[in-house]
Amino acid sequence: MRLKFIPPMKPKLVDKPPAGDGWLHEIKLDGYRTQIVVSAPDDIQVFSSSGADWTRKYTGIVDAARDLGVENAIIDGEVVATNAAGLPDFHALQRVIHADPYAMIFCAFDLLHLNGHDLRDIGCKARREMLFGLIRPGSRIQFSEALPGDAASIFYLVGQAGLEGVVSKRADSKYRSGPSSSWVKAKCWKRRPTK
To answer: Where is each ATP-dependent DNA ligase family profile domain found (predicted)?
Structure first.
């Protein structure tokens, strides 16, 4: 049976990341929210956040998904391209999206389905641990690591690095499509200009 696109869970915008235990903090990537749907090793589709089929734009990511070694899966993430400094750069992504399908990286941050099992009722941290086990080093599919430390320090350092911001997720949050306060995003407004 062919798996279907699942509308994404969307973080609520906040002024700063939430403090305290029970939250995972990741870099907010400057790219296109994307979902990989593997119905079978030879049946892979890639969708935009609105559910548009962008498989042909993402040939390199489709090739990488074939190497995951799964029967079927649905993976949520962000497609990015990097600049000369190795940082996600939205302008670089816009330049290559139609020109070079092998210039993009898929940063995987959630696993919604795996080998016949719907994982959306499992907590975020556990889903991410399963996802981490699928990612192969050197692939165009990379794992979006949670950052160690307290939220305020992470937010400060992300801003200093010229990155877009932080996405914070409740470690026990179930995956629910649409807007959610279990996932929040805080943007660093002073951003490094792109070259």
So the answer is: 20-187
Chain-centroid distance of CA 42 in Å reads 23
Flag whether pLDDT at 18 surpasses 50: yes
Cα–Cα distance list, 7 to 10, 52, 76, 78, 105 (Å): 9, 11, 10, 14, 21
The C-alpha atoms of residue 66 and residue 57 are separated, in whole angstroms, by 16
Task: List pLDDT tens digits, range 62-117.
Answer: 999 999 999 999 999 999 999 888 888 899 999 999 899 899 999 999 999 999 99
Quick check: is 193 in a domain?
no
**Overall domain count for the chain:** 1
For the question of residue 174 being annotated catalytic, the response is no
pLDDT bracket for residue 194 (50, 70, 90): very low
- 3-state DSSP assignment of residue 92: helix
Catalytically annotated residue among 4, 16, 28, 185: 28
**Is residue 46 one of the residues assigned to a domain?**
yes
CA distance 27 to 10: 15
**Residue 2 falls inside a structural domain:** no
**Which residues on neighbouring strands pair with residue 48, listed in sequence order?**
34
Residues in a beta bridge with 27: 166
- In this structure, the number of other CB atoms found within 10 A of the CB of residue 22 comes to 12
**CATH number (domain holding residue 182):** 3.30.470.30
- Please give the pLDDT value at position 190: 52
